[in-house]
Every structure is written in structure tokens, then in C-alpha cells.
Specification:
By secondary structure, this protein is an alpha+beta fold. The protein contains nine helices and four strands, in the order ααααβββαααβαα.
Length: 220
């Protein structure tokens, strides 16, 4: 099994996105899924060596369902065009994970909080108000900027100051944000290289101070 077969399966699935087709190819799907879970277990072990506070995440817990939630999104296809997995998951589920998205239309590695709930967003803003310089130092680091190109722009930043903060706050640019996440795109060619797992570890290391800042903000 390999990432080549994973991408090949996903392309075939998107051309035949139906339960009937999936039922006919159920064994192939499970073979690929089980192989990917094993790969995630290996990566999980490597990430645990990098971070002493790492939350071990078994591959079966990390991997997301391939089915779309048609109850809330009835216009979406039955199945997703990617395999998604979140590692370094806290037991309470409140911390941002280290997310790997491998798909036919895009592949990327990401982390942080994308459009979080109000209580989480409020906690992050409190941390920025208290010590926004630390976050700016992290995101302005040349190697961080080179890998992620800054924070993800969700297009929904406030045009004014959030309630309780002054318009001339020294960190107003951060306080207006509704998303605190980063990602770096990867090509299918990169994913299929033998050193892709090593690259994931490299991305994790670069992202770790950013995730630590956010996770501390929402848990302390």
C-alpha cells in the first residue's frame, strides 16, 4: 500500500461518488484506510519524541470519517475527496490539533483554531491583550513566515475593535481576527516521497510554539 494508491482511490471515488460504488470497493477502501492508520501511528510516535507534552493519538482516533455529513450539508457529495487526520489531540478536545489533509483537490498540513466558538475566541483575545508581543514574535519569525506565509485569512476579520477592546489597542490587528490557524500546502508528489513523514515532523516543530501559545490561552 502507498500514498499513490490512496490518491488513485480518491480520484476514482470522486468520479463515482456513490454508496453503490463504495460498497463494491469497500475492501480497497479499508485496506488503504488501515495502511494510513499504521502510517499515522508511526508519525504519532515520532511527534512524541519532539514534544514532551505531546498528546499521544492512536491513528484510529486521529483519522476522520470519509463520509460527508449530509444531514447538515445535503448538497455535498456522499464522500469527501480527501483523508483528514488530527494528531496531538487533548483528551478534553479543547486544544487545537495538528491536522493533515490529503486530497485530490488540495493537500496541506495545518494547525490552530479555524473560526472557533466564542468562548475559545474570547480566551485567545484575552491572551493577546495580556501578551500579544509573544504571538507576534512567533508569527513574524522568518522560518515560520517562510513555511506558512502568515496566519490563514478567513475573510471575516472585524472592521472595528471587538467588544471590550480599544480601537487603538497595540494588537488590534490580531484582536480583530476570528481565525488563528496556519497551513502549508503540499503537492501529491511531495506526499509520495519517502521523506514525507520527516517533513511532517519538520512542520510540526515549526508550528509548535504557535500551537502552544493558543492551547495555553484556551486552557489556562
Amino acid at each position: 500500500m502507498s500514498f499513490y494508491k490512496m490518491f488513485s482511490f480518491l480520484r476514482d471515488l470522486q468520479e463515482n461518488n456513490s454508496k453503490e460504488w463504495m460498497d463494491e470497493h469497500r475492501k480497497e477502501y479499508h485496506d488503504i484506510r488501515n495502511w494510513y492508520i499504521s502510517w499515522l501511528n508511526e508519525l504519532d510516535a515520532e511527534l512524541g519524541k519532539v514534544n514532551p507534552n505531546y498528546h499521544a493519538t492512536e491513528g484510529r482516533r486521529a483519522i476522520n470519517r470519509i463520509n460527508n455529513n449530509l444531514l447538515y450539508h445535503p448538497n455535498k457529495p456522499v464522500y469527501k475527496d480527501h483523508f483528514g487526520a488530527g494528531l496531538d489531540l487533548s483528551e478534553n478536545g479543547k486544544q487545537g490539533d495538528f491536522y493533515i489533509h490529503l486530497g485530490t483537490s488540495e493537500s496541506f498540513i495545518a494547525g490552530g483554531f479555524y473560526k472557533p466558538k466564542k468562548e475559545i475566541l474570547d480566551s485567545i483575545r484575552d491572551a493577546i491583550d495580556y501578551n500579544g508581543e509573544e504571538l507576534k514574535k512567533i508569527v513574524n519569525k522568518p522560518s515560520f513566515d517562510k513555511m506558512f506565509g502568515g496566519l490563514i485569512d478567513d475573510g471575516e476579520s472585524l472592521k472595528t475593535a471587538p467588544k471590550g477592546y480599544s480601537q487603538d489597542h497595540e494588537h488590534i490587528d490580531l484582536l480583530r481576527r476570528k481565525t488563528f490557524a496556519v497551513q502549508t500546502s503540499v503537492t501529491q508528489k511531495q506526499v509520495m516521497q519517502e521523506d514525507f513523514q520527516d517533513y511532517c515532523v519538520q512542520v510540526y516543530k515549526e508550528m509548535l510554539p504557535f500551537r502552544n501559545y493558543l492551547n495555553k490561552a484556551v486552557t489556562v
